[in-house]
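Example complex used in Figure S2.
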Amino acid sequence: MMTIMNGKNPVPTIRAVAVEAGVSVATVSAVINQTRFVSAETARRVNEAIKRSGYRPNRLARGLSTRQTKTIGIVMPTILSPIAPLLLKSAADVLHEHGFAVLFSNTEMQATWEEQAIELMFDSQVDGLLVVPASETLDTLKLFADAGKPVVLLLHGLSGVSGCDVIRSGNFKGSLDAVNHLIGQGAQRIAVLALPLVSESEKDRMDGFRTGILAAGRTLDPELIRVGAPSESGDSEQHGYQETLKLMTLQHPPDAIFAMNQYMAIGALSALKELGQRIPSDVALIGYDDLIWTRNLEPPLSVVAQQVELIGRMGAMRLIGRLENNDRYDTPESVTVDTHLIVRASSDRAGTATG
Amino acid sequence: MMTIMNGKNPVPTIRAVAVEAGVSVATVSAVINQTRFVSAETARRVNEAIKRSGYRPNRLARGLSTRQTKTIGIVMPTILSPIAPLLLKSAADVLHEHGFAVLFSNTEMQATWEEQAIELMFDSQVDGLLVVPASETLDTLKLFADAGKPVVLLLHGLSGVSGCDVIRSGNFKGSLDAVNHLIGQGAQRIAVLALPLVSESEKDRMDGFRTGILAAGRTLDPELIRVGAPSESGDSEQHGYQETLKLMTLQHPPDAIFAMNQYMAIGALSALKELGQRIPSDVALIGYDDLIWTRNLEPPLSVVAQQVELIGRMGAMRLIGRLENNDRYDTPESVTVDTHLIVRASSDRAGTATG
DNA sequence: GAATGTGACGTAACCGGTTACGCAGCGCTG
DNA sequence: CAGCGCTGCGTAACCGGTTACGTCACATTC
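Predicted assembly (710 residues):
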């Protein structure tokens, strides 16, 4: 049974340990960090003193004097997005393996908050930063640039900001693949439930869609392009539902729908079922991001799957690379991680998908 | 266009600002922290110097001398659980509002990792700790107890550890409500897809189930109690599926199934459909935790919903209360947050649920 | 045996803040 | 006008580590 002691005997410092072991602080520091040779006997005494006193080095003090904290900051617009937890986990795992602590900030899509979070990270002297940008630009990143500290952007880049690595998701090709697949399934009129074009990701998805349509020698019908609510608004599903209802009452309704996020896909699904449309024979449906439950829908949903885990790991690795190799003066690198098209029953008119 | 400067002119310190403004460091510190009176004119000069130099106080240095970092640690067994992101978000939001930074650690259910994470938080001098325990006990929390730093446990307590506040989830009553509801719907043989009894939560859920059955004057049929895989194993859904298949081939199969996590509920759903069972008329089904997509299943799933967001907020508030009121010597408090039973079509034989 | 080298460790400055204490100048009182 | 208190601010110690530099004892060399 453990009870609160009110900190009777204060936390031991390195000086206390030095006294205990009858050596100097330099020696204690040396045995802890293996930073210079210490005789076996002395080392033994020091280690014993450490054990006895329960001494634990203060990371603040260490960080202050070494100017590195072994801490990196992760800034995300919202942890409630379906892919955010995996992104956070995969990055955090890699960082943990390499001995880094994680300062986390969930900025709830607020631009000022996002800037504040980055300032907070800077003030906390993090060694580097992992950011999933929500705003179009982030002036505060200049703090890191000036300090020569590495920043890696995840999922998409940021206009007006160079000097950061970017691990992008292949949204352009993802959308393109989706369109081509639908065309391959015989779709004649493909509608899209798009997202407001705030970040590079949404623009890329839209560009991919356009390119796919035009490359097939078709024209873009404005009626078939519907802009919904962002995933984080909570209205996304409702929008998908409403827009789908409208789409299906057009004079020439679509025979395929590409939803650029999962919530809108669900909304569309509800609407189509309610209208008695058969999926995929009347209307084929494809969504974005492969979540656990997409294959449990009726019918299982085809999706464009981002390799979220890989992106998280790569971002963390890149950051650690910059830190450890000190190659922070290189030109920044940009990587694009491909998406995968996962075909399930919702878009598979041949009925060959394995689900 | 921003480029890396390699930190040419070093980050300004408080001393540099003091020189700039022609005052002492004490005065600069005073105007920043409003800690003593400074004449308007002097304050103006200081603020100008701060602005000009782009000075930002170093949180490490501040933390070192004040012994508080305005940082709190959050330790979770896995951010990939369906309720973890909301728990993290709600706690982090409250902390952010009160000016705290968040050190985050995802321990992947590993006991040693969990202890390490807590040590890391301690070494980082966090002011307090928010923990969702995975292990049965956590010796490392003694570090915080000895230092007089508050710790709040989330979702469930920890055996052998007193001195921490606990914000519990009302799992006992949650299960009890579920059972009573199923009985009220006329269920005669209620099966349970249970979880390994590792933490208090699972034990409470199981106890609630037992109590409900016995209170109705029935007996517990061991055949109807199936222990599945933990949510985090990734096999949970598969287990739910398999165990449901087995359940339905019993001589006396159940007419209701209570799944103690959402994944098993989905597995059960798949199995029941595959067997051509009608839900809820042949078999009623109820799950745990109200996720976004539970109502998009066929049929929409009844669930026991934990008030995850409330638990997160309360935990953070409690921690901040301890910190700000300095009432850390109180006896620890334990709160239990009720669950809500959400009845949807999967268990509603009267067909009155609103979905 | 003096000079030089080397192995093992100690001293004290430093990182960048906060703050206890001190001090000068002024107005006021008796 | 000596003495007192108050106002506004500076000096330097301190938080707990790291590390450049110094020192001492002993071995080696010629």
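Residues 308-325 of chain A form the longest helix (18 residues). Chain A touches chain B through 67 residues (CB under 8 Å).
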